[in-house]
C-alpha cells in the first residue's frame, strides 16, 4: 500500500487518487510543454483531461498491489498541488523493480523539491527492502536536453551510490524513439542483483 510520507517541514507526499484531477489539470495548464516532457505518454492533441483521469484511475487501483506507487506533492501551507512523483513499471532493464519519475510545476521549481521528495521515497523503499530482506533496482530515465532533470538524477546517484549508463537508451514517445539517459540505483545500498 502506498503510504503518506512527510518531507521538509511544509510538504507531504499524498497517495494519488482520482480526486486530484482538478489540481493536476491546473498544474498541467501552467506549463503544458513541461508537463508533457514529464509525462511522455500524454498526447496533447487528444483529450488531456481524459488521459490524466485514466492515469489517476490506473494508479489508484494499483497502489494496493505494490506494483505502482504515485504521490502528489502537497504544500501543507495552503494545500496546493506542487507536483507528482512516483515509482512506475515502465522499465528498461529486466532486473529493475521500478522507474522513478518526478514533475514539479514551474511555480515551485528550483527549490530542491524533487530531490527532497526523491530522498524520502528512496528512504521508504530502502527500509522496505531491509525489512523484507528484498532487493529493489530503481531506474531514472531523463531526456538529455532536460538539464534540471539530469542534474537531479546525478545528485541522486551520487548520494545513493547509483550509476549512470553511458549509452543512451531509446524510449518510444508518440510514434518515435527518443534517446534518454538511464540512471540506476540498487536498494538497499551496497546490494546488487
Overview of the structural elements:
With 193 residues, the chain is of the alpha+beta class. Helices cover 34% and strands 31% of the residues. The chain is built from five helices and eight strands. It has an eight-stranded mixed sheet, with helices on both faces. A hairpin with a 3-residue loop joins strand 1 (5-7) and strand 2 (11-15). The longest helix has 19 residues, at 113-131. The radius of gyration is 16 Å and the shape is globular. The model has no long low-confidence stretch (mean pLDDT 89).
Characteristic terms for this protein:
193 residues, alpha+beta, eight-stranded mixed β-sheet, 34% helix
Q: What is the helix content? A: 25-40%
Computed over alpha carbons, the radius of gyration is: 16 Å
Q: Which spans have pLDDT < 50 for at least 5 consecutive residues?
A: none
Sheet with the most strands, sense and barrel status: 8 strands, mixed
Count of helix runs: 5
Global structural class: alpha+beta
Going across the biggest sheet, name each strand in turn.
1-2-3-4-5-6-8-7
Q: What's the count of strands?
A: 8
Amino acid at each position: 500500500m502506498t503510504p503518506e510520507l512527510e518531507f521538509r517541514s511544509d510538504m507531504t507526499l499524498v497517495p494519488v487518487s482520482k480526486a486530484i484531477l482538478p489540481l493536476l489539470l491546473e498544474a498541467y495548464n501552467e506549463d503544458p510543454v513541461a508537463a508533457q516532457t514529464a509525462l511522455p505518454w500524454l498526447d496533447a492533441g487528444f483529450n488531456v483531461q481524459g488521459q490524466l483521469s485514466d492515469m489517476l484511475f490506473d494508479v489508484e487501483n494499483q497502489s494496493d498491489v505494490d506494483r505502482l506507487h504515485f504521490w502528489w506533492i502537497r504544500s501543507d501551507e495552503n494545500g496546493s498541488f506542487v507536483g507528482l512523483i512516483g515509482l512506475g513499471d515502465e522499465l528498461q532493464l529486466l532486473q529493475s523493480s521500478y522507474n522513478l519519475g518526478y514533475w514539479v510545476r514551474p511555480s515551485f521549481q528550483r527549490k530542491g523539491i524533487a530531490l527532497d521528495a526523491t530522498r524520502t521515497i528512496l528512504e521508504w523503499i530502502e527500509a522496505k527492502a531491509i525489512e523484507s530482506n528484498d532487493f529493489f533496482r530503481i531506474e531514472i530515465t531523463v531526456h538529455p536536453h532536460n538539464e534540471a532533470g539530469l542534474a537531479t538524477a546525478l545528485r541522486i546517484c551520487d548520494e545513493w551510490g547509483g550509476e549512470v549508463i553511458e549509452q543512451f537508451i531509446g524510449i518510444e514517445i508518440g510514434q518515435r524513439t527518443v534517446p534518454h539517459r538511464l540512471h540506476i540505483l540498487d536498494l538497499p545500498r551496497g546490494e546488487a542483483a
